[in-house]
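REQUEST
  id: r-88c1
  op: predict_structure
  target: Histidine--tRNA ligase
  payload:
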Amino acid sequence: MTDETQFRPQARAPRGFADKRAAVLRAERRIVEAVSGVYEAWGFEALDTGAFEYADALGKFLPDADRPNEGVFALQDDDEQWMALRYDLTAPLARFAAENWETLPKPYRRYAFGPVWRNEKPGPGRFRQFIQCDADTVGSARPEADAEIIAMAAAGLEAAGLTRGQAVMKINNRKLLNGLLTTAGVESNGQKLAVLRAVDKLDRLGTDGVRLLLGEGRKDESGAFTKGAGLNAKAAESVLAFLKAGAETRGGTLSALSNVIGGSAEGDEGLEELARIDAALKGLGVADDQALFDPSIVRGLEYYTGAVFEADLLIETLDEAGKPMRFGSVGGGGRYDDLVARFTGQPVPATGFSFGVSRLAAALRAAGRAEADAVRGPVVVIAFDQAHMAEYFSVTRELRAAGIAAEVYLGSSGMKAQMKYADRRLAPAAIMLGGDEIAAGTVTIKDLDLGRELSSQIADNAAWKAERPGQQTIPRAGLVAAIRAIVGDKA
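RESPONSE
  id: r-88c1
  status: 200
  body:
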């Protein structure tokens, strides 16, 4: 085969699958470790399930015969059963709980983290593979279990690096709107789902747009028509009044909602559950600016059965063009009492929350927090002479034994290129051991961190060369102490 005919694949990543270098990986790892620490402190047990689940365990994401990859990445096993990469971490939990229910402590409190995969159209901020970090309580119907998950999520947001006022947990209960619709004479599930879809567009379309979708429908700017829920004017206005019932305090919202719901049994049950959640949150020290009741929160149209909640990011973020944008939700959850029952036929209450780790890391970068994620490289030992390679490796062994990351330059370039390499790695220091240093029992250290700092302050190149910032020659025995002084607590 000649060079002209040899096939050369184009180097490209599949759409929706991001390559991540050290800074992004470090940022995501930091979030996972911080949030996992909160989960463990609250008494939740770690669980890891496999990447694949049998497709019929994925509920509404079950591929059908004609579309085996609809929404998920599925393949047929050698026994002809369809299995798919997990869509989230909750469906595997439901399967695990059903499979092991007799031996599990009840309620079963678990947390999990890892990648999930979705066969959906990728776009800005939407990936086909991303990291989630979940915590769930299976086996408790108490609203206090919802409150604990909400409070723990608020603590997780702060552990991940957000301070008070930079994010808020928004809470609702699906039973409230269900009760309102029942009172308004809406009985069919299809019409209820249409109402929920309309409510879910409040942020994007505003009150007038939602009003149209609650009625006959709405035509967008392109001329495309979306059929509405078909509510009469009175029912539509009652839904809009419900959405406007949010107040600055949880108590104020509860009071406003009690005047809107209309006394339906299901609505009253939802109000009682929110009242118990509020009381528990107060006991857990969660203030109104950390968690509030918001009637517009819907989530998972066919998934959740009671309380629902979202973590809404409030800090200003910028898009790639530097323009302000609203990042929105970085996590969510709620009560899902029917998921385990799919396997067992027996009702098993459950509630949980999921951090979108990749999304939260991206939000922090968009908020200008990327500098905190810069990854410091290792100390670099300059390779002057092949004859002294053993000595260079001895230096790195000594530094690593002291807990300091270090490497010997193993390329084939000269001194100038090696220093450029160390700088690109964000190495804190470069170590130089020429023949003279080895003979004299000394070592030369260049403090690259200080050099970077001073280079931004010195405009004149001659002054830069004259000052030779941060370079010292010391006895070989003092190497570790000198490097530790440069690296500090970042080793």
